[in-house]
Amino acid sequence: MHQKKCDVAVVGAGAIGLCVAVAIASAGRNVRVIDAGLVGGGSSHGNCGTITPSHAPPLAAPGMAATALRMMLAPDAPLYIRPRFDPLLWRWLWRLHGRCTPGAWSESARAKAALLHDSRARLADWVERFALDCEFVESGEDYVFRDPRRFAQGRHEIPLLRELGIGVEMIDGLAYEALEPAMKPGVAGAIRFDGDAALRPDRYVAELARLANSMGVAIVEQCPMQALGQVGDRWRLMLPGGTLDATQVVLATGAWSPRLAHMIGLDWLRAVMQPGKGYSITYDLPARIPRRPLVLRERAVCVTAWSSGYRLGSTMEFSGYDARLHPRRLGALERGAAEYLHEPVGPNVREHWFGWRPMSVDDVPLIGEAPGQPGLWLATGHGMMGIGMSAGTGQLVADLMTGQAPAIDPSPYRPSRFVRG
After folding, report:
1. Most exposed: 153, 223, 246, 341, by fewest CB within 10 Å?
2. H/E run at residue 104
């Protein structure tokens, strides 16, 4: 059996884990990354790649519980909860329901906004400083509405967003149609966020892996962690064919974190996280593409175009770890886009995809040392914001681990907020 050692072992080679590895290696630590699958093989691969401080408001908004109940019986609804006996899911949903209050909504939004702002600026710096070739553009993003009532309701978030430093512009329907020729007539209005950005997520993750390798970080794929325990003052990871001893371990395991909870001695994680399944379709570019990323609000469809391709994505499905690619939910993306866009799809489909997002019950990530487990760190629970929060999360973990003053207040993300006593 082979035995290896390092200062820091990072479990998970998605955007979060690789950003953690880059930031810690930049601080002079010897880092090793392992992943049960391939680099960027989870939800880092097929999302829409938007970097969005504008998305700070959490899923658990006032009134969301009633909306979710109405959607439960519609398998192609933007938010779908597959009816089944799953006590952990229903307890999680009940706790989520308890956060559908103005105070809890505002609290989570403020925590998310701080990390999203920091990460947005840091990511732009990394792209330039490390020459990350990932089609990064400071594009902004638009929320588009066809229902005047939904457009009016969409304005209720604007005061808080402006308070959080997010630039917002309201555009009436006719003016927006003139600005965006890809859009069909019938737009009620749009909300524009000029501070948002976009990149191609699979290329971003590949570039992070290249950067980490150049810093001396070893990345081992197809290497599932089989056990984790302490041996003296070090952590020992049991791996296929050997062990890895590390002074500190970072778990950046995304939606798989609840499944690893018992192995890592953090059973409480199973009660505070759920996998939220998302879908996307990637195409060759259509002839007429939107000028910036869009969220088609009534259908909750995200639209992103890069120089190398075009993607429709989103939906939120709570169906456990169901690994089926449901054609009806993929079709809902195309049907939704067709209501808004002259050319909703590209001429050729490149990929149908799904992935599980790590949804925490307060929609705020868990970043920090695990309660009662010195040297064991969590960087998970980023929900739909993993790409947008990645660089900020990496730096926050590195700062906390090395004793540096972090750029943002780490307290809203501390894992101990879910542990009594």
Report:
1. 153
2. helix 102-129
